[in-house]
Amino acid sequence: MNEYGELLMRKGDYTAAEDMFKRALEVDDKHIPVLIKLGKLFMKKGERNKAYEIFKQIAHLDSQDIKYMSKLGEILMRYKFDEDAENVFINILKASPSDIIALNSLAKLYGKRKEYDRAIELHNRILQICPGDIRSFDALGNIYIKLGNFQKAEQILQEGVSLDKNNSYLNASLLRLYRQNNLEKAESFLKVNYVKHSHDVYFLRECYNYFLDSGQNDKAQQTKKDIGRFNPKFRL
């Protein structure tokens, strides 16, 4: 019933999918995967309050299944139930203090709320546990860019690049840094790195912004077309 309900939901038959999920819950009303899907179904139907009640029900279950609780936290954050998402991630970390997914998600949440000191602390914890975590280098670099500490941002991003020199996210962040701080340095950086990352939409977005900032409108428009060709749904 669970799998069939998911198939119906993908096909857009929400009424039949809801019926399948509810029948599955009659067998086990604490089955987290089914509850999560039912909550997502309610969100798709625009029934936000019903979805929230389902998510709250899951959060209050005494579950040791960190995988599904992490998934719940991500869903809550995606649907902007931020306080509940925070509680889920904090509870995961009480049970498993070194859980990288929960640490990263909670740091992302704090960054979204502009609680940068807390986000920095969590990303540094991640790097103590996993010194090669590229996501944390990138996130820390971007936090320091937002704080205007360009020297610290460059140091951290370059440290990340030393571990993974072909990482497009890190190189896009470096270009963002130089674009905001030093257009001449951005130009030099772009000459060296453009061809290597010219098929990555995140890097191309920074190229587009750099071309606009430097008055190269023809190149900006061409880059915009390239982004649309690679990923028509990508937002600049």
Structure characterization notes:
- By secondary structure, the chain is mainly alpha-helical.
- The protein contains 14 helices and no strands.
- The protein has helices at 2-11, 14-27, 32-44, 48-59, 66-78, 82-95, 100-112, 116-129, 134-147, 150-163, 168-181, 183-197, 201-213, 217-230.
- Helix 1 (2-11) packs antiparallel against helix 2, helix 5 (66-78) packs antiparallel against helix 6 and helix 5 packs parallel to helix 7 (100-112).
- The radius of gyration is 21 Å and the shape is globular.
On the 0-100 scale, what is the average pLDDT? 93
Q: Strand count, sense and closure of the main sheet?
A: none
Number of helices: 14
- Helices and strands: which structural class? mainly alpha
Please indicate the percent range of residues in DSSP E strands (runs of 2 or more): under 5%
Q: How many runs of DSSP E, i.e. beta strands?
A: 0
Radius of gyration: 21 Å
Helix content: over 70%
User: Which outline best applies?
Assistant: globular
Element-by-element helix/strand order: HHHHHHHHHHHHHH
Terminal Cα separation, in Å? 41 Å
Q: What ranges have pLDDT less than 50 throughout 5 or more consecutive residues?
A: none
